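Summary of Year 1 activities. Much of the first year was spent building the evaluation harness for sequence design. The harness presents a backbone, in tokenized form, and records the residue chosen at every position. We chose the following record to illustrate the format because it has been used consistently in internal testing since the harness was completed.
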């Protein structure tokens, strides 16, 4: 128990050193999952162990932080932490994201270079064994693409709140030059720039692999003040954004256990049924991507609402049937 408490104090110190503005007592209690009184005792222990810790006035509350970071002794990563970093880089490279993979691989090299040789030598055998023992299954699907120069240009425009110019090419349409107010990037099965139309403020998405000649432009282009990228991303089942609707899917008893353990949507709720089935409810847009997902559930999933999802599913089934019965030329 004493060791557990010591580990929690060290973890709180790390969080205080990682926060530029510092942490309030309520934030400490939330992050460490303790009560406020316990957080106060842990804070006092950190202040005693780390003289460089300081109190920052932030009316009506106070904050505490550790300036200058912690020493390599307190910050040495574990073999498990290094393993997850290695796996994350490998997953990005396997998924066709070399630029993002290279960033994590560079971070891994910097961490190893900053570690004491004795710590690194002690960790190396365990890390090598764990890397051999774990791998990532590559899922079928599109290979997202975003080269380093493009991501650098997008991030520069976001930070400087400048317009972003690029040429956008849709299948079957003439390439078109665009200038938008960039809001951020969503990474997933395909990577998308999220941006606001400079005249109307309407939020749009653009696939990165269809963009070329990307560069920040002169001027100011500020996203809508009330826009939140996390909220925007959570509204859709996937990437596509359309009308937000109330969705209800009934899963048969044989699939109910799996359905309850599935992450359908951030707003999901479950209703147990008398026969052992379950109804999944959530509020989202992106009915086409939801229809694609429901294919994987086969006869176990029944659409209760909305009607538009049934229509979209019927259209996708008809298209699949036509493809199945198409006679080669």
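For this record, the design step produced the sequence shown next.
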């Amino acid at each position: 128990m004493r060791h557990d408490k010591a580990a929690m104090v060290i973890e709180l110190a790390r969080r205080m050193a990682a926060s530029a503005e510092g942490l309030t007592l309520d934030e400490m209690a939330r992050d460490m999952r303790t009560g406020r009184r316990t957080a106060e005792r842990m804070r006092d222990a950190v202040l005693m162990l780390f003289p460089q810790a300081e109190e920052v006035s932030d009316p009506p509350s106070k904050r505490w932080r550790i300036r200058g970071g912690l020493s390599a002794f307190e910050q040495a990563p574990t073999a498990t932490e290094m393993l997850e970093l290695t796996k994350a880089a490998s997953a990005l490279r396997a998924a066709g994201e070399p630029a993002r993979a290279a960033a994590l691989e560079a971070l891994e090299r910097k961490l190893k270079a900053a570690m004491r040789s004795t710590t690194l030598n002690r960790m190396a055998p365990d890390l090598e064994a764990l890397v051999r023992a774990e791998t990532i299954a590559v899922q079928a699907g599109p290979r997202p693409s975003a080269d380093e120069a493009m991501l650098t240009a997008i991030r520069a425009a976001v930070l400087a709140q400048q317009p972003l110019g690029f040429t956008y090419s849709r299948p079957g349409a003439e390439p078109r030059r665009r200038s938008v107010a960039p809001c951020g990037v969503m990474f997933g099965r395909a990577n998308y720039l999220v941006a606001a139309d400079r005249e109307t403020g309407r939020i749009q998405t653009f696939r990165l692999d269809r963009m070329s000649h990307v560069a920040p432009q002169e001027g100011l282009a500020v996203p809508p003040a009330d826009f939140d990228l996390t909220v925007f991303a959570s509204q859709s089942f996937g990437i596509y954004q359309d009308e937000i609707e109330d969705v209800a899917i009934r899963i048969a008893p044989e699939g109910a256990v799996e359905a309850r353990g599935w992450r359908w949507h951030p707003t999901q709720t479950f209703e147990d049924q008398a026969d052992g089935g379950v109804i999944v409810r959530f509020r989202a847009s992106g009915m086409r991507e939801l229809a694609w997902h429901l294919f994987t559930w086969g006869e176990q999933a029944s659409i209760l609402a909305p009607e538009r999802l049934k229509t979209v599913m019927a259209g996708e089934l008809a298209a699949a049937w036509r493809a199945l019965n198409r006679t080669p030329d």
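The longest strand covers residues 176-186. Quantitative recovery figures across the full test set are reported in Table 2.
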